[in-house]
Write a structure and sequence with these properties.
alpha+beta; 3-stranded antiparallel beta sheet; 1 helix; globular
């Protein structure tokens, strides 16, 4: 009987944890493909990718509408206002490529990954 209660308790706890994780994942629109977490850019926007964390850095490319981006690391830079608020956080999506976190739905007002070195 004690084993059944333990198994039931573990199953109930595992289900609660899975439910919390699912809710957190849905809230941030996080998607994992091949072990890489990606985040959606703001719908209806073509987002500029810059060579550094500020609008004074050159535009390297423009992301198409409804793009998902990986965030390798994040750093503070120029403050920018966008659909997800005003922030000085910039997301590095590849070496030497930055987008303002104000245009990426991370589900957080702070860092969601490690600071860039």
């Amino acid at each position: 009987m004690a084993i059944e209660e333990t198994a039931e308790t573990v199953a109930t706890t595992d289900a609660a944890i899975a439910t919390d994780a699912e809710i957190a994942t849905e809230a941030a629109d996080v998607e994992t493909t091949a072990g890489v977490i990606t985040y959606p850019t703001a719908p209806g926007y073509q987002v500029n990718v810059r060579s550094g964390p500020g609008t004074n850095h050159r535009v390297i490319k423009v992301l198409p509408y409804n793009t998902r981006v990986p965030i390798r690391c994040q750093r503070h830079g120029e403050k920018v206002s966008g659909p997800y608020g005003t922030t000085d956080i910039w997301d590095s999506i590849a070496p030497g490529q930055y987008v303002s976190d104000a245009y990426v739905r991370t589900g957080s007002d702070g860092f969601v990954t490690v600071p860039c070195g």
